[in-house]
Automatic annotation (TrEMBL), chain A:
Homodimer. Heterodimer; two heterodimers of COQ7:COQ9 come together on the same side of the lipid pseudo-bilayer and form a curved tetramer with a hydrophobic surface suitable for membrane interaction. These two tetramers assemble into a soluble octamer with a pseudo-bilayer of lipids captured within. Interacts with COQ7; this interaction allows ubiquinone (CoQ) isoprene intermediates presentation to COQ7 and facilitates the COQ7-mediated hydroxylase step. Transmembrane segments: none annotated. Membrane-associated protein that warps the membrane surface to access and bind aromatic isoprenes with high specificity, including ubiquinone (CoQ) isoprene intermediates and presents them directly to Coq7, therefore facilitating the Coq7-mediated hydroxylase step. Participates in the biosynthesis of coenzyme Q, also named ubiquinone, an essential lipid-soluble electron transporter for aerobic cellular respiration. GO terms for biological process: ubiquinone biosynthetic process. It comes from Brachypteracias leptosomus (short-legged ground-roller). The gene is Coq9. Its main location: mitochondrion. Residues 95-125 form the Ubiquinone biosynthesis protein COQ9 HTH domain. GO terms for molecular function: lipid binding. Belongs to the COQ9 family. Residues 212-282 form the COQ9 C-terminal domain. This is Ubiquinone biosynthesis protein.
UniProtKB/TrEMBL annotation, chain B:
The keyword Lipid metabolism does not apply. Keywords: Methyltransferase, S-adenosyl-L-methionine, Transferase, Ubiquinone biosynthesis. GO terms for biological process: methylation. This is COQ5 protein. Gene3D superfamilies: Vaccinia Virus protein VP39. The gene is Coq5.
Length: 317, 311
């Protein structure tokens, strides 16, 4: 038994080196180990194609009496991303794709169960998997929220991209900056409406210490996207100020939306409009303040010089 | 051929029944491969036989010995396993080598409390119901305190199951619990049946671990989870030395004093040393077809929880 284990171990080690995979924990491994076994993950039309592969790998291993198990990581004829079977790789799903599918299905159950492991379990059940599949995720529902936020950001980016294309093709007018920002933030916040009741819970989850790096990352990427499509090409300190201002606008509007009970969130959009206008005016105000400040300083300096001259003159006289 | 005859002779000399002799002779050829029993080398059939007898003799004192050997920490380990599993009501659990029912009882407690919380939340939301509707909702939930969760305790040893059943009766567990006599290498269940498969401190005593893992894979539903709680390899050298000292000097003495059985506990500590370490067990689980296989060390490696999913 020890020899078999050693032989198996050597084979596995060699296989891993060959596939360039670190002998570390599974989570760090690239998603190349496609999920063969479950009938769920196979498209039925290609099941016949898979049988010969499975049986051929079986034959390979029957000749090794010490190796009790046909390794699922079959060598050679395995139609995965590395193999020759280019078309077969689409039929297999990696673990991450399956996790995405479960989370996507779980979103339907959020209004009822909140952003919790229960919603994920219901999502898994709706896909035909066991409820225990929710154990793949953190038990506080973090991955569900992060998945949703990432998806919303992707959708927003797509919307902005389409908008830009239309402008380039001349189908639409280029919007002034404040209107553009306003509509982009509104579009993004509207994606929260189906889940608005449980959104405070989601916000609290996003603020958990172990989630802060991911949530900050998602937030900053989204703000970056919006400003990029708004045509921001600054390369000086304005880059930071603009993003900080827009992040502030977005966060405050989100919070206002949480406790807004007006029809179709009119109050929220009005609040947003006011904040964007303030931000636009802030630039002019800053310049005004600066020039006024300069004028005041010059006045003071002039007064000081006059006073000192007068005193000198008096002394001289 | 000599190896084939050997187990038969060994079996005959024991106080075995006629059935056992027959089984031995049929398995004579299958008993060939050598394996370990503690630090001894025996055939597979011998090993199965010896382990059966070990647990037959310790069954009554099993729980007391667990508490005294681990100073009660095994309860914490099992609780951690349950929290990691985080079962939702409606889960079907198969606890293999679950003899005296520790994991099963914890599972039932856990789902019961989760279910209570679920019902409370549901009631809180239904603030505007009429009295009729409220009384109806109470009635339908009265018979559902476990939320259709069930646990099947499977063990190869009759004595351990007997002790488990007595404990269940004594502690008042009746719903959602069933006891099945079965071999982990050849489970008497259909395919794709269970949500979670656990084996706590049992896989060490299985002779063909790969077969047990294959069976686990077979009986789990797609998406099901495999959880294994077992003594494992301590990497910290200082702790390892203290642990060895404690294991070999203290535990067999405790075994003799409390259970009157030095040899069984000598076997126990030896079998822990012979068990594959964390990474190797992880590789074996992956070989059986599980995905997202991972392990968590408890007490820096004295115990490890391995987890895998059938995807």
């Amino acid at each position: 038994a020890v020899a078999a284990a050693a032989a198996g171990g050597l084979r596995r080690a060699g296989w891993r080196l060959w596939r360039g995979r670190a002998a570390a924990r599974c989570q760090l491994c690239p998603p190349q180990r496609a999920l063969q076994a479950s009938a769920l993950l196979r498209r039925s039309s290609d099941q016949q194609q898979k049988e010969p592969f499975a049986s051929s790998s079986q034959q390979q291993f029957d000749s090794h009496p010490t190796h009790h198990q046909p390794e699922q990581e079959a060598q050679g004829p395995r139609p995965s991303y590395t193999g020759q079977g280019g078309q077969e790789s689409e039929d297999y799903e990696s673990e991450e794709q399956l996790q995405h599918r479960i989370l996507a299905a779980a979103l339907d159950f959020v209004p009822e169960h909140g952003w919790t492991a229960e919603a994920i379990a219901e999502g898994a059940k709706s896909l035909g998997l066991s409820v225990a599949a929710a154990g793949m995720f953190h038990s506080d529902g973090s991955e569900l929220v992060l998945h949703f936020v990432a998806e919303c950001n992707t959708r927003l980016a797509e919307l902005l991209e389409q908008e830009q294309k239309r402008v380039q093709l001349g189908e639409a007018e280029k919007k002034p900056t404040d209107q553009f920002l306003r509509e982009a933030v509104e579009a993004r916040l509207r994606m929260l409406i189906p889940y608005i009741e449980k959104w405070p819970q989601a916000l609290s989850i996003l603020l958990l210490p172990h989630n802060i790096p991911s949530s900050l990352n998602l937030l900053s990427t989204m703000i970056d996207d919006i400003l990029h499509y708004a045509g921001d090409q600054s390369t000086d300190f304005n880059w930071y100020t603009r993003r900080a201002v827009l992040t502030g606008i977005y966060n405050t509007t989100e919070l206002v939306m949480m406790q807004d009970s007006s029809p179709d969130f009119e109050d929220t959009w009005r609040f947003l409009e006011n904040r964007v206008t303030d931000a636009m005016n802030m630039k002019d105000t800053a310049q005004q303040v600066q020039s006024t400040g300069e004028a005041v300083v010059q006045g003071l300096m002039g007064a000081a010089v006059t006073v000192s001259n007068t005193d000198t003159c008096r002394v001289v006289r | 051929a000599a190896a084939g005859l050997c187990p038969c002779r060994v079996l005959l000399s024991r106080r075995g029944g006629a059935l056992r002799v027959l089984r031995g002779s049929m398995q004579g050829l299958a008993a060939g491969p050598e394996t370990h029993f503690g630090f001894q080398t025996v055939t597979e059939a011998e090993r199965r036989e010896k382990i059966y007898q070990v647990f037959e003799s310790v069954a009554k004192k099993y729980d007391i010995m667990n508490d005294s050997m681990t100073l009660g920490i095994h309860r914490v380990w099992k609780d951690i396993l349950m929290h990691k599993m985080n079962p939702s009501p409606g889960t079907l659990l198969l606890d293999v080598a679950g003899g005296t029912g520790d994991i099963a009882f914890r599972f039932l407690n856990y789902v019961r409390s989760v279910r209570e919380r679920q019902l409370q939340l549901k009631l809180r939301r239904h603030q505007n119901l009429s009295w009729q509707e409220i009384s109806e909702s109470y009635q339908e939930d009265k018979f559902n305190s476990l939320g259709d969760s069930q646990v099947v305790v499977c063990d190869i040893n009759k004595e351990m199951l007997k002790v488990g059943k007595q404990k269940a009766q004594h502690l008042g567990y009746s719903e959602g619990l069933s006891w099945v006599l079965g071999n982990a290498e050849e489970l008497p269940f259909d395919d794709d049946k269970f949500d979670v498969y656990t084996i706590a401190f049992g896989i060490r005593n299985v002779t063909r671990i790969d077969l047990a893992l294959q069976e686990a894979y077979r009986v789990l539903k797609p998406g099901g989870r495999f959880l294994c709680l077992e003594f494992s390899h301590v990497s910290n050298p200082l702790l390892s030395r203290l642990y060895d000292l404690y294991s070999f000097q203290v535990i067999p003495v405790l075994g003799e004093v409390i259970a009157g059985d030095w040899k069984s506990y000598q076997y126990l500590v030896e079998s822990i040393r012979r068990f594959p370490p964390q990474e190797e067990l992880k590789a074996m689980i992956e070989d059986a077809g599980f995905f997202k296989v991972d392990y968590q060390n408890l007490n820096s490696g004295i115990v490890a929880i391995h987890s895998g999913f059938k995807l």
